[in-house]
Q: What sequence folds into this?
């Protein structure tokens, strides 16, 4: 077991190193100075050149890379040119919002996926199954951003049930009940729109997993030994089908990342995804670079966790 | 100079594992095999599954990498680097065990049989067509078959297509890897007799790999018996079937069913003897690891794997 | 000999490969939903390409300040946008562009993915190991962000660079599926046979293995086409898709990022939203039907 985790880490570490190198190269190609965020890209060329020399930006690339990486490890991601503040601080303030959005989305995703997947798999080819399969069909065909847009149009603007932007109503003091409720109120619609679309792949996966498990020999054995139908499902089938789902967790992180970029932009929700789009449009390079790096590392860790969970669940993986 | 000589052939497969995926151990699939075949003869390679007989055949034709040893075909050592480019593939061909997976399901018979011709000979469309039709007629299929797909044929017919493909380049040596074991017993004899016929017509040499001693007896002039990658006994068909020496060979021979009811008692007695001998002398015939000893000559044509000094 | 030659054309039709495309076709014909979807998709495609030949692009993108934000009427079937430009015309051109980029990216990723997967799976061993590490690396990149970064970075940005950027980060899934299949296929005797017959490796890969994967490739490409149409419109929606002078369905949707447009001027963005949804749904319906056809357990017809 430990051997597998060590081996898997030995793949992840070079991946992070390579990612940082690629991000660094992109940073060099970006306007202004993406590594420190101290150079104003709109100044005239002579002034920029002088600033660059002063900041040590004409050093050989490996020196610059070393400086940057050691800064990143210490938590120094440079300055945001637009916000005039540390990138670390800026991202920190947005991170919390994205974290809650992602958490709520994940919870709703599984709250929808588990019952639907189980019903659909257990009673497959029944009317219930057909309705659920129909829903997954539509879910797969609907791009997240269109769905989010329509949700905002209907439940935000037309009915006015939900706020149409921001993460909290202005004028509330943090820590009060009203503040928390307002936060949840702002979160609910974006999280719901994202979850309703991303859940369909989990529903479909769980359904086919259950249908497959149903026909396996050990289930037939369990039945023939006289186990009740609900015991067969709750104890044998569900447990065996659920474990592989845990492995989808890693790809969920990747999906959440691209999801937040769309959803946060549409709902003007002040999270990292919205910050990213904004930073690219406003040429706030240091912020964009830091976000790419952070999301990339999150992706790597996500697949790492998936693989480890999967190896715990299925010992055969460990051999390879 | 023999036609084909295999000297101390070794084929090892690595077992990888550990932290860095290093080579931990090897499986000695073929562990020091030597034999020679004369032109125009059929040499049988017999053994249970996992004995290394198929790997030996595949190593000779180049489908498995040879770890060490020599394969000398018409005086050229195929394992030497300078001979790697020497196209012996044209002269050595193979008939595969499974007539279902050995024909590409997406290709018409014409393309299947023409594949070797397209690789080695520059023929016009008409010449090619003529050759393929000719080959198909040789294996007993009609000219109309050329546009059909493999799934439109029976197992025996498919194996004939495989044979037509193997003889297309007029090879000298054909490695037949269990050519009939996937076929119905009723068609086995048909295909085997047909293989014997074309052997005469085309002066072919066969390396005949099989686990079925009855078929081997029918087909082969000389036989080698393999067990766990090594030879246990080798000799002419006569030697092996009438004077088996090694306990492993004896058990194999005793296991051949005899349909003549008059021999039933004799057969039963022979089996009982062999079983008794097997039980008390197993350790004598195999070393501590359960592998066969090196071969020793007991006549001009007959070799047995025996411990030093024994007989 | 002459007789045989004459027969070839006639006879060829009489025999069909067992796993052939004819099975895919039969499945579509038997699946009413897939058939309707296919007809719808082809209909839309032909319509937009034909109409866009007739439409005057300059006329559509010309700003008309006297007709800003007009609701649908006789002159402007679907109203106008903030520059007084005809939405219907933009919808036609936009659909054409979206479909075009969908096709281009699907084909490019297909070519790269299939080649990569075939080589990796066919040769296996060390080469496969190295190639899989490369693929894994591409897979863990935050692909949407990198696409956006590159779209923002590339100087002289054009439709071509847009499709290349998308392709660079989208070939991995198909490569992985093809590689897994090729790994299975290479163990089959017909591949071994080809080797003993002296057929060179590249010919075995593309001439023997590839045709056996054709149904699978068609299924993946169809499903990818749907995904790529959605992805392009999403990127254009965020403002990182087509260059500004080339409207796409996503461009029309991006007008809805203005709350007033979203709330009050549905005719600008809703038709594009519905069209994207219908296009993706119909392509996916066809893809799902094809997927069933390649899995004999689920085959219908």
A:
């Amino acid at each position: 077991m430990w051997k597998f985790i060590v081996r898997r880490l030995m793949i992840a570490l070079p991946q992070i190193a390579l990612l940082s190198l690629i991000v660094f190269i992109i940073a060099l190609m970006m306007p202004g100075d993406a590594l420190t965020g101290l150079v104003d890209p709109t100044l005239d060329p002579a002034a920029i050149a002088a600033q660059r020399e002063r900041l040590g930006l004409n050093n050989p690339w490996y020196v610059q890379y070393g400086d940057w990486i050691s800064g990143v490890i210490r938590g120094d991601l440079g300055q945001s040119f637009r916000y005039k503040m540390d990138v670390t601080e800026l991202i920190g303030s947005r991170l919390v919002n994205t974290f809650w959005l992602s958490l709520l989305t994940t919870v709703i995703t599984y709250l929808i996926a588990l019952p639907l997947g189980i019903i659909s798999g257990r009673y497959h080819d029944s009317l219930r199954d057909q309705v659920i399969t129909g829903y997954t069909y539509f879910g797969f065909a609907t791009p997240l951003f269109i769905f989010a847009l329509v949700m905002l149009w209907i439940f935000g603007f037309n009915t006015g049930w939900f706020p149409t932007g921001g993460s909290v109503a202005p004028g509330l003091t943090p820590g009060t009940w009203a503040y928390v409720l307002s936060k949840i109120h702002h979160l609910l619609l974006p999280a719901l729109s994202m979850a309703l679309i991303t859940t369909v792949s989990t529903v479909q996966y769980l359904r086919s997993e259950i249908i497959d498990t149903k026909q396996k020999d050990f289930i037939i054995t369990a039945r023939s030994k006289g186990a009740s139908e609900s015991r067969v499902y709750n104890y044998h089938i569900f447990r065996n089908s659920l474990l592989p789902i845990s492995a989808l967790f890693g790809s969920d992180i990747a999906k959440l990342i691209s999801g937040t970029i769309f959803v946060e932009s549409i709902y003007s929700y002040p999270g990292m995804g919205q910050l990213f789009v904004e930073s690219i449009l406003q040429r706030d390079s240091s912020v964009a670079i830091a976000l790419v790096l952070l999301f990339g590392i999150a992706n790597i860790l996500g697949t790492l966790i998936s693989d480890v969970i999967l190896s715990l669940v299925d010992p055969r993986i460990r051999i390879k | 100079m023999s036609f084909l000589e295999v000297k101390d052939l070794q084929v090892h497969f690595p077992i990888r594992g550990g932290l860095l995926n290093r080579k931990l151990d090897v499986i000695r699939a073929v562990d020091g095999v030597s034999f020679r075949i004369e032109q125009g003869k059929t040499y049988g390679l017999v053994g249970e599954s996992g004995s290394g007989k198929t790997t030996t055949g595949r190593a000779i034709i180049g489908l498995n990498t040879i770890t060490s040893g020599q394969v000398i075909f018409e005086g050229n050592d195929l394992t030497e680097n300078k001979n790697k480019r020497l196209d012996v593939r044209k002269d050595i061909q193979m008939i595969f065990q499974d007539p279902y997976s050995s024909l590409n399901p997406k290709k018409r018979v014409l393309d299947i049989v023409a594949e070797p011709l397209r690789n080695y000979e520059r023929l016009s469309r008409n010449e090619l067509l003529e050759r393929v039709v000719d080959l198909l007629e040789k294996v007993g299929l009609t000219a109309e078959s050329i546009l059909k797909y493999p799934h439109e044929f029976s197992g025996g017919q498919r194996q004939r297509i495989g044979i037509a493909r193997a003889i297309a380049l007029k090879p000298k040596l054909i490695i037949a890897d269990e050519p009939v074991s996937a076929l119905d017993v009723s068609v086995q004899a048909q295909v085997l007799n047909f293989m014997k016929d074309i052997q005469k017509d085309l002066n072919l040499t066969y390396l005949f790999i099989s686990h079925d001693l009855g078929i081997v007896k029918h087909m082969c002039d000389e036989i080698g018996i393999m067990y766990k990658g090594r030879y246990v006994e080798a000799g002419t068909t006569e030697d092996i079937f009438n004077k088996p020496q090694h306990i492993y060979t004896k058990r194999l021979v005793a296991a051949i069913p005899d349909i003549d009811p008059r021999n039933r008692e004799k057969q039963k007695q022979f089996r009982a003897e062999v079983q008794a001998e097997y039980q008390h002398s197993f350790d004598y015939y195999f070393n501590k690891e359960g592998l066969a000893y090196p071969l020793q000559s007991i006549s001009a044509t007959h070799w047995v794997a025996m411990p030093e000094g024994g007989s | 000999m002459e007789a045989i030659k004459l027969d070839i054309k006639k006879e060829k039709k009489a025999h069909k490969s067992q796993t052939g495309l004819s099975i895919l076709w039969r499945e579509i014909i038997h699946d009413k939903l897939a058939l309707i979807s296919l007809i719808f998709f082809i209909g839309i495609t032909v319509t937009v390409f034909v109409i866009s030949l007739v439409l005057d692009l300059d006329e559509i993108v010309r700003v008309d300040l006297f007709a800003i934000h007009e609701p649908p009427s006789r002159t402007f079937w679907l109203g106008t946008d903030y520059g007084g430009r005809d939405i219907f015309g933009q919808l036609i051109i936009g659909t054409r562009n979206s479909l075009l980029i969908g096709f281009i990216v699907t084909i490019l990723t297909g070519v790269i993915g299939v080649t990569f997967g075939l080589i990796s799976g066919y040769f296996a061993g060390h080469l496969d190991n190295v190639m899989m590490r490369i693929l894994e690396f591409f897979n863990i990149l935050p692909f949407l962000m990198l696409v956006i970064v590159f779209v923002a970075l590339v100087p002289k940005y054009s439709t071509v660079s847009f499709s290349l950027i998308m392709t660079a980060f989208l070939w991995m899934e198909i490569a992985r599926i093809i590689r897994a299949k090729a790994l299975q296929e290479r163990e089959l005797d017909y591949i071994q046979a080809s080797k003993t017959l002296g057929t060179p490796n590249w010919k075995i890969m593309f001439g023997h293995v590839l045709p056996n994967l054709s149904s699978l490739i068609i299924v993946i490409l169809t499903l990818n086409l749907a995904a790529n149409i959605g992805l392009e419109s999403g990127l254009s929606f965020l403002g990182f898709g087509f260059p500004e002078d080339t409207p796409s369905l996503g461009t029309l949707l991006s007008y809805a990022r203005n709350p007033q447009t979203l709330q009050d001027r549905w005719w600008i963005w809703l038709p594009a939203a519905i069209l994207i949804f219908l296009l993706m749904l119909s392509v996916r319906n066809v893809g799902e039907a094809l997927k069933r056809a390649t899995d004999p357990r689920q085959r219908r017809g």
Observations:
- The mean pLDDT of chain C is 84.
- Chain C touches chain A through 40 residues (CB under 8 Å).
